[in-house]
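Dear colleague,

Thank you for sharing your sequence with our group. We've completed the structure prediction you requested, and as agreed, I am returning the results in plain text so they can be pasted directly into your records. Please verify that the sequence below matches your submission; if there's any discrepancy, let me know and we will rerun it promptly.
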Amino acid sequence: MKQDPGSYLLYEAGKFITYNFRIKIVMRETVNAKALETAAQTAFARFPYMAKRINVLPNGEIEFTDNPLPITVKKCDGKHVRFATEDVNYHLFSIEYDGKDIYFNVYHGICGACGAMFWVKSTLWHYIKEAYGIEVERGNIKTAGTQPAEGETDYPDRASLTDEKPLGNIKTDSVYIPAADYLKQLVSMPFREAKYYELELEAKDFMKYARSNDGSPNSILSALMFRAVCKVVSPKVAKAIRGNIVCNYRADVGCPETYYDLVRMISVFYPRYLEDKEIEYLSTVTRSMMYIQMQPEFSAQTMKEIFELMDNVDAKKGLLSKKLYTLTHSQHTKPPFGTFMVSYVGRDEWYGLEEYIERVHSVTDGHLLLEVNSLRDKFYLSFMELNGKHKFYDAFCEAMREENIHFKELGCYERNLPYTVLPKK
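Please find the predicted structure tokens below.
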């Protein structure tokens, strides 16, 4: 590994696939633009490892160098943020706002949602101080002036990874993939023009339902997504369905507090004959497969594959050669491929920020992708679907109604994801 670990994802990014995401915070009051600008600069200075600029070297390597320029804060204008350009002072992060909404734009290679929340919460803490003159309960929020916490910038040590093999294997049988929906997007419009749907669930009621059905939020939501796909796609087309559930494996590889994005997929294989089973049965099946794949040995295996990919990219000569290699060898191109994905890695602690925040959503690339966030006594869901007829979203809502799971539909929104522009060598 010659480069910063966060730079390798840039070899995989294409014109329409962004590998970036947004965290949307809906405040209880209209955003004070001046206070947000001040807070943004104060907070971002706390995270120098995020303040980077891209350089493409003559040999095709991509390097990060320190970027002392201020982070950009602007009112939403309907345009897509272009990371690594003059528009955002060449940064890979930016902030937008509109009414009560604040959007934190993030390049996924540097960090995932867990790491990005370090910055998001810090910015919001300083924003409340600037806007209202109040220092709310800080908890472990990484505010300006605090020193980096132990392990905050750690990356796995290759030599420390176990060589032991996990017990059991992941089922890799072929499953239904909604390829036609992906193809339609590629032909007709860029992925970044897609919409998504927001929902709200009462945490107390949903957790009570989950416990009564031998489930966790992940296993229940995965079972409901399976039900939704079955409602839309015939058994002749979808003989089997796979759910991919996000697993945060930072602790497994010795970096429990790091800002780096260390997540992998837990694969849940659903034969179609399970379609008529009760949710409790589906949840039990899901949890059993999750349990098997939660072994640290699976995490070590994933990390070794990532190191191998990095080494092989380093060995290629020239930018084009490196990009062509990652096109067919990255983690995103390896089976088992999923029909849908559920992304929830546990409840967040917002401390004194909660009184000022109405809700929070994560917005990403993907199709049949369910992002889950939590705040106070609510779960907030973002349902990503490429198909314009929102047939899978409707089926998911129907599956929840059939189980008497109460929820509120909050609307359909443009994803408006940022994308990254590589500078010329």
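Summary note from our side: The first strand starts at residue 20 and ends at 27.

Kind regards,
the structure core
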